[in-house]
Amino acid sequence: MKVLKSLNNSLILCQDNEGSEVILMGKGLGFQLKKGDTVPLEKVEKIFKLDSLSSTLKTDYIHLFENVSDELIINVKKIVDYANTKFEYPLSKNLFFTLLDHIKYSIERSKNGIVFQNKLLVEIQKYYPKEFSIGCYGIEQINKELNVQLPEEEAGNIAFHIVNAQDEQTNMEETIQFIRMLKDVLMILSYLFPEKEVDKESMLYLRFVTHLQFFLNRMIKAEELPSKDDFLLNSVSNRLPKELEAAKKIKEYVEKELPVTVNNDEILYLTLHISRVY
């Protein structure tokens, strides 16, 4: 393999023998090699194939690797490797990227004194004990090795990523319903924001879709958030009126499809996520 670009001390972007782009991980690889060099494969610890990704998402992932520390990459890899030992079937190959992106921003928020409360922490512990135990392992690993103080709530967030990375679904009927509703919600948004050209291959859009996935899963399982943030919802009504109206349209749709009530916390978080993409 030939080096195309050094991303950091441990990662290099390469072209394999078939002409496809791959990212190679190995201690000191990025420090030792330069463009055009042949990679000593005995020093490669992990290969990330990019051929199945869109050009936009590929660019996002490369940019992500360029802006994280070697220590974070190594420790997220440990979390993913550990998670894969706990299941009989493989987790999604995208788990490494999505988890790296999530933990990177969690650390940044923590250092800035911003903590997002995970109001489903108890439910995650109850319904996803294996995934939550992986999340606890991950937080312990990150806090110890990177000298940060991520809270227990982040173990729940990691657990959600593990759940989302599982290829097998235990309830096919719920899966079919979930896919149909996700498609409908995205169609509602495209109708409400016809002028907006959304890059559906970007990481920002993927984060938004991930939130919708968690939201719809909660609605299907009737595990909605407890509603406490009426004040915050009122505060965004003047600042984000169009986005709030879109969130209310989604609420109306979900309540027609399911025997649930979408409360104000759910509307608030939908509004904020919609504002970032639309």
Automatic annotation (TrEMBL):
One GO BP annotation of this record: regulation of DNA-templated transcription
GO terms for MF: RNA binding
Keyword Repeat: yes
Keyword Repeat: yes
InterPro entries from the UniProt entry: BglG_antiterminators, CAT_RNA-bd_dom, CAT_RNA-bd_dom_sf, PRD, PRD_sf
PROSITE patterns for this protein: PRD_2
Domain annotation PRD: ranges: 67-172, 173-278
Keywords: Repeat
Protein name: BglG family transcriptional antiterminator
